[in-house]
Design brief:
The complex is a heterodimer of chains A (86) and B (269). With 86 residues, chain A is α+β, with helices and mostly antiparallel strands. In chain A, 47% of the residues lie in helices and 19% in strands. Chain A has a two-stranded antiparallel sheet. Chain B is globular. Classes of the chains: A alpha+beta (86), B alpha/beta (269).
Chain lengths: 86, 269
Amino acid sequence: MGLFDWFRTTQRNTAGTAKERLLIIVAQERAQRDSEDYLPTMKRELLEVIRKYIKVPESAVQVQLHRDGNEERLELTVSLPESKPL
Amino acid sequence: MSEIIVVTSGKGGVGKTTSSGSLACGLARRNKRVAVVDFDIGLRNLDLIMGCERRVVYDFVNVIQGDASLKQALIRDRRFDNLSILAASQTRDKDALSQEGVERVLEELKAEFDYVICDSPAGIERGAHLAMYFADHAIVVVNPEVSSVRDSDRVLGLLSSKSKRAEQGRGKIVEHLLLTRYAPDRVERGEMMSIKDVEDILGIKVLGVIPESPEVLQASNAGVPVIMDEQSKAGMAYDDAVARLLGEQRPLRFLEPEKKGFFQRLFRG
């Protein structure tokens, strides 16, 4: 550090800030990437299981992943076909 | 057994083409047969870095579309007989590269060369995807800077899932990290992330660290890849990276700030 730097305001360690920010965002983006990878396969397999018992169209199964802060919630909606009156 | 190496990054301007040119020359200098291919369709630049821009007659797209043979399109390097360049096309048609076409050209290149280096365009669109899809090795070029590091992580994710190797279950692309524009003095002052910082974030070790140096710009001005400047730190650092790529053990160098004289210190030279 040069002599004249003494008169400047003390430098912050911005490299440290950069590292902290990146560690967080990269972890978050990786989690998203990995979870998005298994969703289509899971949806297909769920559909197969449901179809063993109930006859439903492909659109009947909806899978959604919700995130609130640290909490993750998997929402699974299965719309059953209208039951025929007896 | 020849290998395909993609040089990629996500973010633009981090030194992909500079690195492709130098790595190609470095491998050629070690008597490997090397072809270096510019995948940046519409924004041809590898020819300038290699210094052969006035010798481009046919390009990658001409070969894919059958307007020229690969032999006609390859430009033999003036420095090394065993090094050839395939220039990118200047066409604005982004779909000029077809997956089948790229595969055919790469297969043909593999028959003739030990290493095929694919210089990827920036971004994660079609051109970048095709440049990495057939690769065996990937060199991810990264600057110690927030957007570059984040983009590299994105690219590392794509490399592990969107490659022919991965899809065929032939194992993953071998990933290497090349840290460029590294300024040890700024790292020491806490202004720039260190090698360890970048390695910690991305979770892989560096293959090489290229110090920020004026010779890189001078080399591109002259059309002579910086690795040919054996006096320059950047040139030596690229040579180390090539050696490590071939399995040699070499310690990293040029990681300490240069000692400055009294007056330089006084006036922040």
